[in-house]
Amino acid sequence: MAGLIALRQGDFAAAQTALKIATAAQGASGELWSALGVACWWGGDPGAAVTAFEKAVITEPSSSAGWVNLGLLNLAAGRTSEADALFKEAFRRDPCSADALTGLGAIALSMQKWPEADAQFTAAIEVAPDHVAASLGR
After folding, report:
1. How many angstroms separate the CA atoms of 104 and 114, rounded?
2. pLDDT at 1 over 90
3. What is the rounded distance in angstroms from the CA atom of residue 1 to the CA atom of residue 25?
4. What is the pTM of this model?
5. Tens digits of residue pLDDT in 102-130
6. pLDDT per residue over 28-44, tens digit each?
7. 27: which residues sit within 8 A by CB, 6+ positions away?
8. SS (H, E, C) the chain
9. What is the average per-residue pLDDT within 89-102?
10. Fewest CB atoms less than 10 Å from the CB: which of 42, 83, 89, 98?
11. Burial 60-72 (b: 16+ CB within 10 A, else e)
């Protein structure tokens, strides 16, 4: 799919265009909505990113990706409580989500809860040994 290829290449405008067309089709997956959210966020439109991520969690509520992305947006905006709740929801839906664990570690780190942050980052690395963000958190 052109939108996902453009996203991987860092062409966020092309990704947004292609993914908006793809998500306009009935039955668009949560993965496509999440990809559109990433393209919008990195393309400088956080409002559209929120909308896309919300559609991702509505479309595929069992997938942790949309929840994690909403958590990241909230964390970047300084809404720590909201981010924490979203990362916890992502973890509840997928206890093996290294991204959710890393998000929870980042929250703990921001609150200077060092042992809790270390435990979350360690758990993330155990799930995904090559997870860069989790490795940096330790």
Report:
1. 12
2. no
3. 14
4. 0.89
5. 999 999 999 999 999 999 999 999 999 99
6. 899 999 999 999 999 99
7. none
8. CHHHHHHHCCCHHHHHHHHHHHHHCCCCCHHHHHHHHHHHHHCCCHHHHHHHHHHHHHHCCCCHHHHHHHHHHHHHCCCHHHHHHHHHHHHHHCCCCHHHHHHHHHHHHHCCCHHHHHHHHHHHHHHCCCCHHHHHHC
9. 96
10. 42
11. beebbbbbbbbbb
Q: CA-to-CA distance for 62 and 65, rounded, in angstroms?
A: 9
pLDDT of residue 134: 80
Structure tokens at 53: 């991520």
Rounded to an integer, what distance in angstroms lies between the CA atom of residue 41 and that of residue 27?
23
Return the pLDDT at 115.
96
Identify the residue whose tokens are 């062409």. 11
